[in-house]
Each structure stands twice: as C-alpha cells, then as structure tokens.
Amino acid sequence: MANRGAGNVIPYEVQGSGPERVIALHHWLSDRSGFGRLRNHLDAGAFSYAFVDCRGYGEAADTPGAYTMEEVAADALAVADDLGWDSFSVIGHSMGGKAAQQMLLDAPGRVRSVVGISPVPASGFPLEGEMWELFVGAVEDSGNRRAIFDALTGGRHDDAWLDARVHGSERSSHAALRSYLESWTRGPDIHEPVEGNATPVLVVAGASDPAMGPDTMRSTWLQWYPNAELAVFDDAGHFAPDESPQALATVVESFLGRGTGQAGRTL
Questions:
Q1: 78-111 per-position pLDDT tens digit
Q2: Please, what is the average pLDDT of the chain?
Q3: With helix as H, strand as E and coil as C, how does 212-261 read?
Q4: CA distance linking residue 146 with residue 162, whole number of Å
Q5: Span 130-153, mean pLDDT?
Q6: Which segments of the chain are extended strands (E)?
Q7: Sheet with 12-15, edge to edge strand ranges
Q8: Domain segments of the chain: what residues?
Q9: pLDDT number for residue 264
Q10: Residue 37 φ then ψ, to 5°
C-alpha cells in the first residue's frame, strides 16, 4: 500500500499488515528505494513496515525543509501519527540511525526498539580532510558518489553494482544532501542524553565497512545502550540491505519479533 501522507506528512509506503509495526529511515545517498532488495524478503504477515522518503528524496524531492536529523525524526513521528501507530520500532540505515536515536529522545514512550544498519552514532561521525572533500563533492558529482559506494564496501563490487547504486542516489536534491551531510557529521552530539537508554537495540555492521564497521559500533552504540547487541555480516560493507538482503531480513525480524534485547550480545 502506498500513501503520500495527509497534509504536511512526508511520503511513505506501507508494506505488510502484521501487528509488529516498523518505520524505516534510509541512508544519505538513497531514498526509500534503498531498501528495495531487503523488502523482497520481509514477512508481510507478521510485520507492517512504513518506508519513508525524507525531505529532499524520492517523492519528497521537492519538499522544502531544514534537512536535519531533528527534522527527519519529527517527520517520522508524524508518519506514525498519520498511521495511528502509538508504538513502533525504527530501522535506521546509516544517517537514518542518527535520526532514529533522535526519535528515542523525542518520543521515548513510543519507540519499542531500534535497529541500526551501519548506523551513524549518537555523537555523529565527523569527516576531515580528503574524506570531507570526497563527501562534499558527492553532493553534485556522481563520480564522488561512486567512489563512496566503492570505499564503504571494501572495493568488493563490480561496475554494474556500483552504477546501480549511483543511479539510485540521483533521486535526491543537492540542497538536501548538503544540509543532511552537515547534520549527521557535525550536528548535535546526543550520546549523553541517550546513554543508558534501556530500549532494545540491534546494530548491524558489515565487516568490509571502514567507517561504520564493527569496531565503531562497539566503541559507540554498544557502550551507550545497555540492551544493545551486534550482528556482524562478513559478506557486507556499509550497504547490507543491498549486499546481504535475505540474511539481513532474517536477523532483523528475529530481533523485532523477540521484542527484547540482550545486553552486549553478539549475534
């Protein structure tokens, strides 16, 4: 079922009709279609997933805004209101993981659990020097985007795979990309407010991800959330929904269906 949202609600699409409700937030270089391969393996009978387009992406490409993590969180909560969901879980991929944590602060009684896929920590992820220039350049340069997809997956994929990811990244506005980049890298550090939060958390990291890999997750997410657990995918980098969609669906739905976290456990 597709729904563009009522009034000022950002566009979203619901998949499934199950009792376990989940909102999914995409990464910086894709709209909600970035979850496309993962969606082929999800259980529509047990779960209801709302895949949103953040402002500046996909069906919301022309939607004006501040393009910040705080705005993404507020928009996602408005989607939940539009759906009549009092409580739900949140999946956040990369920058979506930072916004998911903001939702924990903004609506602590509503977020049942969080799944972070190669997620940006609550502290943000500052980029410096050549890496910052690479990402800033990616706002307008598809070559830079291709280099980012290649680097964040350990150079494991062929030209066709990289070209497809770059093509998907074109469903975004330059203004949104630039502002979101500032927000998830240099925006407010919220790790102190979330530290000790008992919400069940699953963090998924690809072994070939040089940025949001297992070590980064252990030194951030697993330090701050007492009910956090880590799943490491040996055959993935930063983009597990594309690289290991079936395995990812299995791990995520096992966690969401369980409804509880186990402190410090590694899947």
A1: 999 999 999 999 999 999 999 999 999 999 999 9
A2: 94
A3: CCHHHHHHCHHHHCCCEEEEEECCCCCCHHHHCHHHHHHHHHHHHHHCCC
A4: 6
A5: 98
A6: 2-3, 12-15, 20-25, 47-52, 88-93, 111-117, 201-206, 228-233
A7: 2-3, 12-15, 47-52, 20-25, 88-93, 111-117, 201-206, 228-233
A8: 2-258
A9: 37
A10: -70, -35
CB atoms within 10 A of CB 79: 21
The arithmetic mean of pLDDT across residues 194-212, rounded, is: 97
Question: For residue 221, which amino acid is it?
Answer: W
Has domain 2-258 been given CATH number 3.40.50.1820? yes
Q: Identify whether the C-beta of residue 33 lies closer than 8 Å to the C-beta of residue 102.
A: no
Q: How far is CA 134 from CA 45, 127, 142, in A?
A: 42, 10, 11
30-46 pLDDT tens trace: 999 999 999 999 999 99
Tokens coding 246? 């079936």
Buried b (16+ CB within 10 A) or exposed e, 252-263: bbebbeeeebee
**Whole-angstrom distance, CA of residue 254 vs CA of residue 143:** 37
Please write the tens of the pLDDT for every residue from 168-202. 999 999 999 999 999 999 999 999 999 999 999 99
| Backbone φ/ψ region at 51: left (φ over 0), alpha (ψ -120 to 50), beta | beta
